[in-house]
Amino acid sequence: MFILFFLINGSLIAQSLDTIKTNDSLINIKLSNDFKFKPKQLIIPSVLIAYGFIGMESDWVKNINKEISEEVTENIDRRLTIDDFSQYAPALSVYALGAIGIKGKNNLKDKSIILATSFIIMSITVTALKSIAKIERPDGYSNNSFPSGHTANAFMGAEFLYQEYKVTSVWYGVSGYVVAAATGAFRIYNNRHWLTDVVSGAGIGIVSAKAGYWLLPVVNKLFTSSSNPNKRSAFIPYYNGNQVGFGYVSSF
């Protein structure tokens, strides 16, 4: 609740500070470009993901993981569960901002398709890597530490928030990324993940959100009937770190 409130109010302040004047044609050009694949967009998430894979084999990186984990958890008496909720805040803020009249880049249908596509890509990737890597968690509870699903979910939402509102104000995205970074930090604080898990999770989340935008034109056609243009469909994703699911809604 507090994090969502922070995002909404922070963005309202940013909107009042950053008044962007542009014509419709310029906006249309920017919007169409967002759906085009650009290799340079993969640089940052690829570096983040690669760091995690290197950490699985590098003794030097493993030692850094252990040192950070020991330093962070040394004086911790109890676990905080804020990360179980903050992982959803950036993505939910897109809908909350729209509900209070602050319009994003896309309409409700397209936003839902982008989010559902991003979520499916992210959850499949995270689940597959967890089952393959079998890295033990810092607390020794299980062997599915790599990558961090909570962090991937949070950064997917942060990139989603940034893409939807970057034309209005960059501070929307900044707020989302702050919350996502805090989510990753709390995963380490709660002794649930190594640094490499969190870093790679961030990369997976970012690239998953970007893929959601790249695939929108294709997915849009699958859920829009040419014989009935008023028919609309959407997925409602769900992920709690261990379980994956989604609902399907269709209107006629």
From TrEMBL:
SUPFAM superfamilies, per the entry: Acid phosphatase/Vanadium-dependent haloperoxidase
Database matches in InterPro entries: PAP2/HPO (IPR000326), PAP2/HPO_sf (IPR036938)
Name assigned to this protein: Phosphatase PAP2 family protein
Source organism of this protein record: Flavobacterium cellulosilyticum
Residue ranges constituting the Phosphatidic acid phosphatase type 2/haloperoxidase domain according to the UniProt record: 111-213
Superkingdom classification of source: Bacteria
SMART domains: acidPPc
Any Pfam family: PAP2
